[in-house]
Amino acid sequence: MIAADAPGRDNAKLFVISGNGDTRHVPRAALASVFGRGDLIVANDAATLPASLAGTHRDEPIEVRLAAWGSLQDPRRFVAIALGAGDHRMRTEDRPPPPLLVAGDRLSLGPLAAEVERLLDHPRLFVLRFSGDRGAIFRGLASQGRPIQYAYVAEPLALWDVWTKIAAEPIAFEPPSAGFALDWRMLAALRHRGVGVATLTHAAGISSTGDPALDRRLPFDEPYRIPAVTAAAINQAKEEGGRVVAIGTTVVRALESATDAHGRVRAGDGVARGRLGRDSPLRVVDAILTGVHQPGESHFDLIRAFADDAVLDRASAELAANGYRTHEFGDSMLIERSPPG
Predict the structure, then answer these.
(1) If DSSP codes are grouped into helix, strand and coil, which group holds residue 127?
(2) Which pLDDT score, from 0 to 100, does residue 17 have?
(3) Does 3.20.20.150 match the CATH number of domain 2-47+157-336?
(4) Which of 134, 261, 257 is nearest to 200 (CA)?
């Protein structure tokens, strides 16, 4: 497999893994054809913040990457990652360490007044507190921030490159990129086939820190909001025997976190905690549309809840043989949950 190097690819591919392990290849433009009446698509409508902030600390260069919210109700506090000199053209794991941070330090991040509120249990992981109200903070992010970006995309990304066609409230730190498969033509095609479409809002977090110890903790806790109309649509689909299809790992995390012991999804705000994996029972999501992920990534661990390792090993070989592209601007996989064994 190779890394995708540009957004907006029109020739994207889709690899389908059925619940019994069978596979097939279709153009992603034909995505609607793999669903039928009674299925319900649930997508994340979060827009992406310009969450990479370049600045200085004690006259040394620093990049602060906002990585998670403390709470959706408090726009001032974020969990953040600090990197040293360099930019996105350098691999994150090759970036030098940031200047030493201590609680109470003030950071110079353009128009934003920022303070290290407290260090967490890693020298690059801390709680950042901005001064000012929500409007001032978002204006500062808009003028100073850039999308978080990695070295496999050489050209600087614009903010609109990391917004899906259904993007609404800007609360994500990296794009809920499975949603790049959806545009207005695709939504119309889905509805024409009798497929339901619903949305939730989930604060997709950072996907890589450049530090192996920190990467093992991903994903961080991520707040979400599920509208009442979405919860009702999901519960009705399950009652009527339809499939619930999550567009992306963030949707899986939100829905499985919001599902009660009776298998019903609760509306409202919540926080998705922990890491889903091979031994995680799925109570509501029947299939996932996601990008092409590599073993060891938290996203790959999550898809192990849908298919066993033997199926995913065969799939990885087939994806590589067919030149599927990885990362957020790459190709897609649709994985149906294996039946209980």
Answers:
(1) strand
(2) 97
(3) no
(4) 257
51-146: what CATH class?
Answer: mainly beta
User: Domain extents for the chain?
Assistant: 2-47+157-336, 51-146
Query: What are the backbone angles phi and psi of residue 268, rounded to the nearest 5°?
Result: 115, -170
* pLDDT tens track for 196-234: 999 999 999 998 888 888 888 889 999 999 999 999 999
Beta strands in the chain (DSSP E): 2-3, 13-17, 23-27, 40-44, 47-48, 52-57, 60-71, 74-83, 106-109, 112-122, 125-130, 145-146, 170-172, 196-202, 222-226, 244-247, 268-272, 287-291, 325-326, 332-336
Which one-letter amino acid corresponds to residue 29?
Answer: A
- Kindly report, residue by residue over 5-37, the tens digit of the pLDDT: 556 566 899 999 999 999 999 999 999 999 999
pLDDT in tens, 175-187: 999 999 999 999 9
Sheet harboring 268-272: ordered strands across?
A: 23-27, 13-17, 332-336, 287-291, 244-247, 40-44, 196-202, 222-226, 268-272
Q: Name the pairing type of β-strands 222-226 and 196-202.
A: antiparallel
User: Is the pLDDT reported for residue 144 higher than 90?
Assistant: yes
DSSP 110: T
Whether cis (ω within 30° of 0) applies to the bond prior to 219 is yes
Measured in Å, how far apart are the chain's first and last C-alpha atoms? 31
d(CA 257, CA 155): 37
Per the CB < 8 A criterion, the answer to whether 12 and 26 are in contact is no
Amino acid at 339: P
